[in-house]
TrEMBL record:
Domain Lipid-binding serum glycoprotein C-terminal: 289-496
Location relative to the cell: Secreted
Name of the protein in question: Cholesteryl ester transfer protein
Organism of derivation: Struthio camelus australis
SMART domains: BPI1, BPI2
Length: 513
Protein backbone atom coordinates (compact mmCIF):
# COMPACT_ATOMS: atom_id res chain seq x y z
CA UNK A 1 0.00 0.00 0.00
CA UNK A 2 2.96 2.28 0.43
CA UNK A 3 3.47 2.01 -3.34
CA UNK A 4 -0.10 3.11 -3.98
CA UNK A 5 0.38 6.10 -1.72
CA UNK A 6 3.60 7.01 -3.52
CA UNK A 7 1.88 6.78 -6.91
CA UNK A 8 -0.90 9.02 -5.67
CA UNK A 9 1.62 11.54 -4.40
CA UNK A 10 3.48 11.41 -7.71
CA UNK A 11 0.22 12.00 -9.60
CA UNK A 12 -0.59 15.04 -7.50
CA UNK A 13 2.88 16.49 -8.03
CA UNK A 14 2.64 15.85 -11.79
CA UNK A 15 -0.70 17.64 -11.92
CA UNK A 16 0.76 20.60 -10.05
CA UNK A 17 3.71 20.74 -12.45
CA UNK A 18 1.35 20.72 -15.44
CA UNK A 19 -0.64 23.55 -13.91
CA UNK A 20 2.30 25.74 -12.97
CA UNK A 21 4.50 25.04 -16.00
CA UNK A 22 1.91 25.22 -18.77
CA UNK A 23 3.09 27.01 -21.92
CA UNK A 24 1.35 29.94 -23.51
CA UNK A 25 1.35 30.50 -27.26
CA UNK A 26 0.13 33.35 -29.40
CA UNK A 27 -2.82 33.15 -31.79
CA UNK A 28 -0.51 32.40 -34.75
CA UNK A 29 2.19 30.02 -33.45
CA UNK A 30 3.45 29.07 -36.91
CA UNK A 31 4.45 32.70 -37.50
CA UNK A 32 7.27 32.40 -34.93
CA UNK A 33 8.36 28.91 -36.01
CA UNK A 34 11.98 28.75 -37.14
CA UNK A 35 12.61 24.99 -36.90
CA UNK A 36 10.26 22.06 -37.40
CA UNK A 37 10.98 18.41 -36.70
CA UNK A 38 8.65 15.81 -38.20
CA UNK A 39 9.05 12.15 -37.27
CA UNK A 40 6.95 9.82 -39.42
CA UNK A 41 5.52 6.46 -38.39
CA UNK A 42 8.50 4.39 -39.69
CA UNK A 43 10.76 6.41 -37.39
CA UNK A 44 8.30 5.92 -34.53
CA UNK A 45 8.40 2.16 -35.16
CA UNK A 46 12.20 2.25 -35.06
CA UNK A 47 12.15 4.23 -31.82
CA UNK A 48 9.63 1.77 -30.42
CA UNK A 49 12.11 -1.06 -30.95
CA UNK A 50 14.61 0.82 -28.83
CA UNK A 51 12.09 1.47 -26.05
CA UNK A 52 12.18 -2.23 -25.11
CA UNK A 53 15.36 -1.39 -23.21
CA UNK A 54 13.54 1.38 -21.37
CA UNK A 55 10.62 -0.93 -20.45
CA UNK A 56 13.02 -3.57 -19.17
CA UNK A 57 14.79 -0.93 -17.12
CA UNK A 58 11.43 0.17 -15.68
CA UNK A 59 10.75 -3.35 -14.43
CA UNK A 60 14.27 -3.87 -13.11
CA UNK A 61 14.45 -0.53 -11.33
CA UNK A 62 10.96 -0.39 -9.91
CA UNK A 63 11.20 -0.23 -6.12
CA UNK A 64 8.75 -2.83 -4.87
CA UNK A 65 7.68 -2.04 -1.32
CA UNK A 66 7.26 -4.55 1.46
CA UNK A 67 3.60 -5.45 1.83
CA UNK A 68 2.01 -6.50 5.14
CA UNK A 69 -1.48 -7.52 6.25
CA UNK A 70 -3.51 -10.12 8.08
CA UNK A 71 -6.53 -12.35 7.57
CA UNK A 72 -8.63 -14.66 9.74
CA UNK A 73 -8.42 -18.41 9.23
CA UNK A 74 -10.76 -20.97 10.87
CA UNK A 75 -9.13 -22.96 13.65
CA UNK A 76 -5.92 -20.94 13.37
CA UNK A 77 -7.09 -17.44 14.29
CA UNK A 78 -5.50 -14.41 12.69
CA UNK A 79 -2.68 -14.93 10.23
CA UNK A 80 -0.27 -12.01 9.79
CA UNK A 81 1.81 -11.97 6.63
CA UNK A 82 4.28 -9.89 4.67
CA UNK A 83 5.98 -9.90 1.28
CA UNK A 84 9.57 -8.66 1.37
CA UNK A 85 12.61 -8.42 -0.91
CA UNK A 86 10.56 -8.52 -4.14
CA UNK A 87 12.86 -8.63 -7.16
CA UNK A 88 12.53 -9.21 -10.91
CA UNK A 89 14.49 -11.86 -12.79
CA UNK A 90 14.59 -13.39 -16.30
CA UNK A 91 12.73 -10.50 -17.91
CA UNK A 92 11.95 -10.66 -21.63
CA UNK A 93 9.67 -8.86 -24.08
CA UNK A 94 8.19 -10.77 -27.00
CA UNK A 95 6.56 -7.99 -29.04
CA UNK A 96 6.10 -4.23 -29.04
CA UNK A 97 3.75 -2.22 -31.26
CA UNK A 98 3.18 1.50 -31.63
CA UNK A 99 0.28 3.50 -33.02
CA UNK A 100 -0.11 7.25 -33.45
CA UNK A 101 -3.55 8.46 -32.45
CA UNK A 102 -4.39 11.73 -34.16
CA UNK A 103 -4.46 14.71 -31.77
CA UNK A 104 -4.33 12.34 -28.85
CA UNK A 105 -1.42 10.10 -27.89
CA UNK A 106 1.28 7.64 -28.85
CA UNK A 107 -0.06 4.18 -28.01
CA UNK A 108 2.55 1.55 -27.20
CA UNK A 109 1.43 -2.05 -26.75
CA UNK A 110 4.01 -4.34 -25.12
CA UNK A 111 2.90 -7.94 -25.45
CA UNK A 112 3.93 -10.98 -23.45
CA UNK A 113 6.35 -9.52 -20.96
CA UNK A 114 7.59 -12.61 -19.11
CA UNK A 115 9.34 -12.30 -15.79
CA UNK A 116 10.00 -14.20 -12.59
CA UNK A 117 9.32 -12.30 -9.38
CA UNK A 118 11.19 -13.52 -6.34
CA UNK A 119 10.76 -12.63 -2.70
CA UNK A 120 10.09 -13.86 0.79
CA UNK A 121 6.73 -14.60 2.37
CA UNK A 122 6.80 -14.05 6.12
CA UNK A 123 3.80 -15.21 8.14
CA UNK A 124 2.75 -15.93 11.67
CA UNK A 125 -0.48 -16.85 13.38
CA UNK A 126 -1.93 -17.01 16.85
CA UNK A 127 -4.31 -19.94 17.08
CA UNK A 128 -6.41 -21.46 19.81
CA UNK A 129 -4.68 -22.67 22.96
CA UNK A 130 -2.29 -19.65 22.52
CA UNK A 131 -0.28 -21.37 19.78
CA UNK A 132 2.19 -18.92 18.17
CA UNK A 133 4.24 -19.70 15.06
CA UNK A 134 6.39 -17.50 12.79
CA UNK A 135 7.69 -18.74 9.46
CA UNK A 136 9.53 -17.52 6.36
CA UNK A 137 9.13 -19.05 2.90
CA UNK A 138 10.89 -17.99 -0.32
CA UNK A 139 8.58 -17.71 -3.28
CA UNK A 140 8.79 -17.33 -7.06
CA UNK A 141 6.00 -16.16 -9.34
CA UNK A 142 6.13 -16.86 -13.05
CA UNK A 143 4.26 -14.12 -14.87
CA UNK A 144 3.08 -13.18 -18.34
CA UNK A 145 1.93 -9.59 -18.70
CA UNK A 146 0.69 -7.28 -21.46
CA UNK A 147 1.47 -3.62 -21.03
CA UNK A 148 -0.44 -0.73 -22.63
CA UNK A 149 1.05 2.77 -22.43
CA UNK A 150 -0.63 5.87 -23.84
CA UNK A 151 1.94 8.65 -24.02
CA UNK A 152 0.73 12.21 -24.39
CA UNK A 153 3.13 14.89 -25.61
CA UNK A 154 2.69 18.33 -24.12
CA UNK A 155 4.61 21.51 -23.40
CA UNK A 156 6.19 22.17 -20.02
CA UNK A 157 8.63 25.02 -19.44
CA UNK A 158 8.73 25.63 -23.21
CA UNK A 159 9.95 22.13 -24.09
CA UNK A 160 8.42 18.79 -25.02
CA UNK A 161 7.25 16.73 -22.04
CA UNK A 162 5.94 13.18 -22.06
CA UNK A 163 3.08 12.02 -19.84
CA UNK A 164 2.93 8.20 -19.64
CA UNK A 165 0.69 8.02 -16.58
CA UNK A 166 -2.05 6.36 -18.68
CA UNK A 167 -0.60 2.88 -18.17
CA UNK A 168 -2.32 -0.51 -17.91
CA UNK A 169 -1.11 -4.01 -17.08
CA UNK A 170 -3.01 -7.14 -18.08
CA UNK A 171 -1.96 -10.37 -16.37
CA UNK A 172 -2.25 -13.62 -18.29
CA UNK A 173 -0.28 -15.78 -15.91
CA UNK A 174 0.74 -15.63 -12.26
CA UNK A 175 2.02 -19.02 -11.09
CA UNK A 176 3.19 -19.22 -7.47
CA UNK A 177 6.00 -21.56 -6.40
CA UNK A 178 7.04 -21.91 -2.75
CA UNK A 179 10.61 -23.01 -2.13
CA UNK A 180 10.07 -24.73 1.22
CA UNK A 181 9.38 -23.83 4.83
CA UNK A 182 12.32 -22.18 6.55
CA UNK A 183 10.22 -21.30 9.62
CA UNK A 184 11.44 -20.96 13.11
CA UNK A 185 9.01 -22.39 15.71
CA UNK A 186 8.92 -20.40 18.90
CA UNK A 187 6.96 -23.17 20.62
CA UNK A 188 6.94 -26.83 19.79
CA UNK A 189 4.32 -27.40 17.15
CA UNK A 190 3.78 -29.12 13.88
CA UNK A 191 4.07 -26.45 11.15
CA UNK A 192 1.76 -26.30 8.21
CA UNK A 193 3.56 -27.29 4.96
CA UNK A 194 4.10 -25.30 1.76
CA UNK A 195 1.12 -26.92 0.05
CA UNK A 196 -1.24 -25.52 2.64
CA UNK A 197 0.49 -22.14 2.41
CA UNK A 198 0.16 -22.09 -1.36
CA UNK A 199 -3.57 -22.67 -1.11
CA UNK A 200 -3.94 -20.00 1.54
CA UNK A 201 -1.79 -17.29 0.01
CA UNK A 202 -1.97 -17.76 -3.80
CA UNK A 203 -4.96 -15.48 -4.28
CA UNK A 204 -3.64 -12.92 -1.83
CA UNK A 205 -0.15 -12.78 -3.37
CA UNK A 206 -1.56 -12.61 -6.91
CA UNK A 207 -3.91 -9.77 -6.00
CA UNK A 208 -1.23 -7.89 -4.05
CA UNK A 209 1.41 -8.32 -6.73
CA UNK A 210 -0.93 -6.97 -9.39
CA UNK A 211 -1.47 -3.81 -7.35
CA UNK A 212 2.22 -3.40 -6.63
CA UNK A 213 3.27 -3.93 -10.25
CA UNK A 214 0.65 -1.54 -11.55
CA UNK A 215 1.78 1.07 -9.05
CA UNK A 216 5.54 0.76 -9.22
CA UNK A 217 6.15 -0.25 -12.86
CA UNK A 218 3.80 2.37 -14.32
CA UNK A 219 5.29 5.03 -12.09
CA UNK A 220 8.78 4.04 -13.21
CA UNK A 221 7.74 4.09 -16.89
CA UNK A 222 6.23 7.54 -16.47
CA UNK A 223 9.42 8.74 -14.80
CA UNK A 224 11.62 7.26 -17.55
CA UNK A 225 9.39 8.69 -20.30
CA UNK A 226 9.85 12.19 -18.92
CA UNK A 227 13.58 11.64 -18.44
CA UNK A 228 13.84 10.37 -22.02
CA UNK A 229 12.05 13.49 -23.29
CA UNK A 230 14.51 15.63 -21.31
CA UNK A 231 17.43 13.56 -22.61
CA UNK A 232 16.38 14.07 -26.24
CA UNK A 233 15.83 17.79 -25.62
CA UNK A 234 19.31 18.11 -24.10
CA UNK A 235 20.84 16.25 -27.06
CA UNK A 236 19.12 18.64 -29.48
CA UNK A 237 20.06 21.73 -27.45
CA UNK A 238 23.69 20.62 -27.34
CA UNK A 239 23.71 19.92 -31.08
CA UNK A 240 22.65 23.48 -31.96
CA UNK A 241 25.12 25.16 -29.60
CA UNK A 242 28.78 25.92 -30.05
CA UNK A 243 30.48 27.89 -27.31
CA UNK A 244 28.59 31.21 -26.96
CA UNK A 245 26.40 30.75 -30.04
CA UNK A 246 23.24 28.69 -29.61
CA UNK A 247 19.74 28.26 -30.94
CA UNK A 248 16.71 28.66 -28.71
CA UNK A 249 14.69 25.50 -29.37
CA UNK A 250 11.77 26.50 -27.14
CA UNK A 251 8.45 25.27 -28.46
CA UNK A 252 6.46 27.65 -30.64
CA UNK A 253 3.29 25.53 -30.31
CA UNK A 254 2.04 22.34 -28.68
CA UNK A 255 3.43 19.08 -30.13
CA UNK A 256 1.28 17.76 -32.96
CA UNK A 257 0.32 14.09 -33.35
CA UNK A 258 -1.21 12.83 -36.60
CA UNK A 259 -1.98 9.30 -37.73
CA UNK A 260 1.24 9.09 -39.78
CA UNK A 261 3.62 11.46 -38.00
CA UNK A 262 4.33 13.54 -34.94
CA UNK A 263 5.69 17.07 -35.24
CA UNK A 264 7.25 19.70 -33.02
CA UNK A 265 7.67 23.40 -33.82
CA UNK A 266 10.51 25.43 -32.32
CA UNK A 267 11.35 29.13 -32.26
CA UNK A 268 14.94 28.73 -33.43
CA UNK A 269 16.08 32.18 -32.30
CA UNK A 270 19.84 32.72 -32.15
CA UNK A 271 21.29 33.58 -28.74
CA UNK A 272 24.68 35.26 -28.64
CA UNK A 273 25.81 37.75 -26.00
CA UNK A 274 23.85 40.97 -26.62
CA UNK A 275 22.71 39.97 -30.11
CA UNK A 276 18.94 40.36 -30.30
CA UNK A 277 17.04 38.01 -32.60
CA UNK A 278 13.36 38.56 -33.44
CA UNK A 279 11.26 36.51 -35.82
CA UNK A 280 7.54 36.73 -36.60
CA UNK A 281 6.99 36.07 -40.31
CA UNK A 282 7.70 32.37 -40.74
CA UNK A 283 6.69 30.70 -43.98
CA UNK A 284 6.05 27.31 -42.40
CA UNK A 285 2.96 25.29 -43.17
CA UNK A 286 2.49 21.54 -42.47
CA UNK A 287 1.80 21.05 -46.19
CA UNK A 288 5.45 21.85 -46.96
CA UNK A 289 6.58 18.50 -45.55
CA UNK A 290 5.66 15.05 -46.82
CA UNK A 291 5.52 11.66 -45.06
CA UNK A 292 7.65 9.42 -47.30
CA UNK A 293 10.89 9.66 -45.27
CA UNK A 294 11.55 8.88 -41.61
CA UNK A 295 12.69 12.29 -40.43
CA UNK A 296 12.25 15.86 -41.67
CA UNK A 297 13.74 19.15 -40.54
CA UNK A 298 12.39 22.47 -41.78
CA UNK A 299 14.62 25.54 -41.26
CA UNK A 300 13.78 29.14 -41.96
CA UNK A 301 16.10 31.37 -43.95
CA UNK A 302 16.04 33.67 -40.93
CA UNK A 303 17.94 31.11 -38.83
CA UNK A 304 20.77 30.88 -41.36
CA UNK A 305 21.05 34.67 -41.50
CA UNK A 306 21.09 34.96 -37.72
CA UNK A 307 23.71 32.23 -37.34
CA UNK A 308 25.92 33.93 -39.93
CA UNK A 309 25.53 37.24 -38.07
CA UNK A 310 26.49 35.63 -34.76
CA UNK A 311 29.51 33.95 -36.36
CA UNK A 312 30.53 37.33 -37.81
CA UNK A 313 30.20 39.06 -34.44
CA UNK A 314 32.19 36.24 -32.82
CA UNK A 315 34.97 36.86 -35.38
CA UNK A 316 34.78 33.33 -36.72
CA UNK A 317 34.58 34.29 -40.40
CA UNK A 318 38.32 34.41 -40.92
CA UNK A 319 40.72 32.11 -42.76
CA UNK A 320 44.51 31.97 -42.92
CA UNK A 321 46.21 30.34 -45.93
CA UNK A 322 49.92 29.63 -46.36
CA UNK A 323 52.42 27.18 -47.78
CA UNK A 324 51.19 24.64 -50.31
CA UNK A 325 47.57 25.81 -50.15
CA UNK A 326 48.65 29.37 -50.92
CA UNK A 327 50.76 28.09 -53.80
CA UNK A 328 47.80 26.13 -55.19
CA UNK A 329 45.70 29.32 -55.22
CA UNK A 330 48.12 31.28 -57.36
CA UNK A 331 49.44 28.59 -59.65
CA UNK A 332 46.18 27.99 -61.45
CA UNK A 333 47.90 28.46 -64.80
CA UNK A 334 51.37 28.86 -66.22
CA UNK A 335 51.17 32.05 -68.23
CA UNK A 336 53.14 35.23 -68.42
CA UNK A 337 50.32 37.09 -66.70
CA UNK A 338 50.39 34.62 -63.82
CA UNK A 339 54.17 34.78 -63.43
CA UNK A 340 54.08 38.59 -63.50
CA UNK A 341 51.32 38.77 -60.87
CA UNK A 342 53.11 36.34 -58.56
CA UNK A 343 56.37 38.31 -58.89
CA UNK A 344 54.68 41.64 -58.17
CA UNK A 345 52.80 40.33 -55.12
CA UNK A 346 55.37 38.06 -53.49
CA UNK A 347 58.50 39.90 -54.73
CA UNK A 348 60.56 36.71 -54.79
CA UNK A 349 59.44 35.55 -51.33
CA UNK A 350 58.52 31.87 -51.10
CA UNK A 351 54.98 30.74 -50.35
CA UNK A 352 56.22 29.28 -47.06
CA UNK A 353 57.27 32.77 -46.00
CA UNK A 354 53.96 34.32 -47.01
CA UNK A 355 50.49 34.36 -45.45
CA UNK A 356 47.09 35.21 -46.91
CA UNK A 357 44.34 36.28 -44.54
CA UNK A 358 40.70 36.29 -45.64
CA UNK A 359 37.88 37.67 -43.50
CA UNK A 360 34.39 39.04 -43.81
CA UNK A 361 34.01 42.81 -43.45
CA UNK A 362 30.21 42.77 -43.31
CA UNK A 363 27.58 40.45 -41.93
CA UNK A 364 26.82 37.86 -44.62
CA UNK A 365 23.38 38.10 -46.16
CA UNK A 366 21.81 34.71 -46.84
CA UNK A 367 18.91 34.09 -49.16
CA UNK A 368 17.51 30.58 -49.68
CA UNK A 369 16.29 30.02 -53.23
CA UNK A 370 15.23 26.95 -55.26
CA UNK A 371 18.60 26.89 -57.01
CA UNK A 372 20.53 26.95 -53.71
CA UNK A 373 21.59 29.10 -50.80
CA UNK A 374 22.81 32.53 -51.93
CA UNK A 375 25.48 34.13 -49.72
CA UNK A 376 26.55 37.75 -50.15
CA UNK A 377 29.25 39.58 -48.21
CA UNK A 378 32.10 42.07 -48.54
CA UNK A 379 35.34 40.16 -48.02
CA UNK A 380 38.86 41.43 -47.38
CA UNK A 381 42.01 39.66 -48.57
CA UNK A 382 45.43 40.59 -47.22
CA UNK A 383 48.71 38.98 -48.29
CA UNK A 384 51.74 39.52 -46.09
CA UNK A 385 55.26 38.47 -47.00
CA UNK A 386 58.16 37.80 -44.61
CA UNK A 387 61.37 38.09 -46.68
CA UNK A 388 64.36 36.58 -44.83
CA UNK A 389 66.37 39.33 -43.15
CA UNK A 390 63.80 42.01 -44.00
CA UNK A 391 60.79 43.59 -42.35
CA UNK A 392 57.38 41.96 -42.95
CA UNK A 393 55.36 43.68 -45.63
CA UNK A 394 51.68 43.81 -46.55
CA UNK A 395 52.10 43.14 -50.27
CA UNK A 396 48.45 43.11 -51.28
CA UNK A 397 45.14 44.26 -49.81
CA UNK A 398 41.79 44.13 -51.55
CA UNK A 399 38.10 44.20 -50.74
CA UNK A 400 35.54 42.45 -52.87
CA UNK A 401 31.79 42.04 -52.71
CA UNK A 402 31.23 38.37 -53.34
CA UNK A 403 27.94 36.65 -54.12
CA UNK A 404 27.96 32.87 -54.36
CA UNK A 405 25.19 30.30 -54.74
CA UNK A 406 25.83 27.07 -52.84
CA UNK A 407 24.19 23.68 -52.99
CA UNK A 408 24.59 21.48 -49.90
CA UNK A 409 24.59 17.72 -49.50
CA UNK A 410 25.59 15.16 -46.87
CA UNK A 411 27.36 11.94 -47.81
CA UNK A 412 29.77 9.52 -46.14
CA UNK A 413 29.29 11.41 -42.86
CA UNK A 414 30.57 14.64 -44.40
CA UNK A 415 28.91 17.92 -45.33
CA UNK A 416 29.46 18.81 -48.99
CA UNK A 417 29.12 22.42 -50.17
CA UNK A 418 29.22 22.95 -53.92
CA UNK A 419 29.48 26.50 -55.34
CA UNK A 420 27.31 26.83 -58.44
CA UNK A 421 27.56 30.48 -59.42
CA UNK A 422 29.90 33.18 -58.15
CA UNK A 423 30.08 36.90 -58.82
CA UNK A 424 32.65 39.36 -57.52
CA UNK A 425 33.13 43.13 -57.59
CA UNK A 426 36.24 45.05 -56.47
CA UNK A 427 35.58 47.54 -53.68
CA UNK A 428 39.20 48.37 -52.80
CA UNK A 429 42.62 47.39 -54.16
CA UNK A 430 46.17 48.14 -53.07
CA UNK A 431 49.39 46.45 -54.20
CA UNK A 432 52.77 47.75 -52.99
CA UNK A 433 54.39 46.80 -56.32
CA UNK A 434 51.71 48.71 -58.27
CA UNK A 435 50.95 51.86 -56.27
CA UNK A 436 49.41 53.57 -59.33
CA UNK A 437 46.92 50.68 -59.70
CA UNK A 438 47.24 50.88 -63.48
CA UNK A 439 48.08 47.23 -64.12
CA UNK A 440 44.73 45.76 -65.21
CA UNK A 441 46.31 42.37 -65.90
CA UNK A 442 46.96 42.04 -62.17
CA UNK A 443 43.30 42.62 -61.33
CA UNK A 444 42.14 40.30 -64.08
CA UNK A 445 44.38 37.53 -62.80
CA UNK A 446 43.24 38.04 -59.22
CA UNK A 447 39.62 38.04 -60.36
CA UNK A 448 40.17 34.69 -62.08
CA UNK A 449 42.12 33.28 -59.15
CA UNK A 450 39.34 34.20 -56.68
CA UNK A 451 36.65 32.57 -58.83
CA UNK A 452 38.61 29.43 -59.78
CA UNK A 453 40.47 28.58 -56.57
CA UNK A 454 39.82 31.24 -53.92
CA UNK A 455 36.09 30.78 -53.33
CA UNK A 456 36.30 26.95 -53.52
CA UNK A 457 39.13 27.02 -50.94
CA UNK A 458 37.08 29.12 -48.53
CA UNK A 459 34.02 26.91 -49.00
CA UNK A 460 36.15 23.78 -48.49
CA UNK A 461 37.35 25.23 -45.20
CA UNK A 462 33.73 25.88 -44.13
CA UNK A 463 32.88 22.26 -45.09
CA UNK A 464 35.61 20.89 -42.84
CA UNK A 465 34.72 23.19 -39.96
CA UNK A 466 31.01 22.38 -40.01
CA UNK A 467 31.60 18.64 -40.48
CA UNK A 468 33.98 18.63 -37.53
CA UNK A 469 31.48 20.57 -35.43
CA UNK A 470 28.60 18.20 -36.27
CA UNK A 471 30.74 15.14 -35.60
CA UNK A 472 31.77 16.56 -32.24
CA UNK A 473 28.04 16.56 -31.42
CA UNK A 474 27.76 12.88 -32.36
CA UNK A 475 26.08 13.12 -35.77
CA UNK A 476 28.59 10.67 -37.26
CA UNK A 477 27.38 8.02 -34.80
CA UNK A 478 24.00 7.84 -36.55
CA UNK A 479 23.56 5.74 -39.66
CA UNK A 480 22.00 8.33 -42.00
CA UNK A 481 20.63 6.99 -45.27
CA UNK A 482 19.89 8.92 -48.47
CA UNK A 483 19.84 12.40 -46.93
CA UNK A 484 18.54 15.26 -49.07
CA UNK A 485 18.88 19.00 -48.52
CA UNK A 486 16.18 20.79 -50.50
CA UNK A 487 16.06 24.57 -50.85
CA UNK A 488 12.97 26.61 -51.54
CA UNK A 489 12.35 30.33 -51.48
CA UNK A 490 12.82 31.39 -47.86
CA UNK A 491 13.49 27.99 -46.28
CA UNK A 492 15.24 24.65 -46.62
CA UNK A 493 14.20 21.08 -45.84
CA UNK A 494 16.43 18.23 -44.69
CA UNK A 495 14.88 14.78 -45.14
CA UNK A 496 16.47 11.43 -44.37
CA UNK A 497 16.16 7.89 -43.08
CA UNK A 498 18.28 6.78 -40.14
CA UNK A 499 19.04 4.22 -37.46
CA UNK A 500 19.99 4.85 -33.85
CA UNK A 501 23.50 4.37 -32.47
CA UNK A 502 23.58 1.19 -30.40
CA UNK A 503 24.75 3.03 -27.30
CA UNK A 504 22.30 5.96 -27.36
CA UNK A 505 19.62 4.59 -25.05
CA UNK A 506 22.22 2.77 -22.99
CA UNK A 507 23.89 6.12 -22.33
CA UNK A 508 20.50 7.52 -21.35
CA UNK A 509 19.79 4.66 -18.95
CA UNK A 510 23.24 4.88 -17.38
CA UNK A 511 22.81 8.61 -16.76
CA UNK A 512 19.25 8.28 -15.47
CA UNK A 513 19.28 5.16 -13.30
Amino acid sequence: WAGMMRLGTFGILLALVRTTAACEFGPLPYSVTGIVCRMTKPAALLLNQETAQVIQAAFRNAKFPNVTGERSVRFLGKVAYGLTNIQVNNLSIEQSEVELKENDAIDIAIKNVTAVFKGTLNYGYAGVWFLQLFHSVDFEIESSIDLQINIKLMCQEDQVAADASDCYLTFHKLALHLQGDKGLSLQSCRAAGPGWLKQLFTDFIAFTLKLVLKSEVCEEINFLAQMLANFIHDLAANFVQDEDIKLDISLASVPLIKANYLETHHKGLVRYENYSDVFSDSLFSPTLLSESRMLYFWLSEHILNSLASAAFLDERLTLTIFGEKLQALFEIEETETQRKAVQMIFQGTSYNDSVAKVWSLTRPQISVQPEGTVVKSVVAVEISIFPPGKEPLVALYMEKEITVTIQAAYAEKKLILHPLDSRTEFKAFKCTADPSRNDKSMRNFLQKMILVTGIPEVISSIELTLTSLMNSKGLNLFEIRSPEIITRKGYLIVQLDFSFPDHLLLDFLEKTL
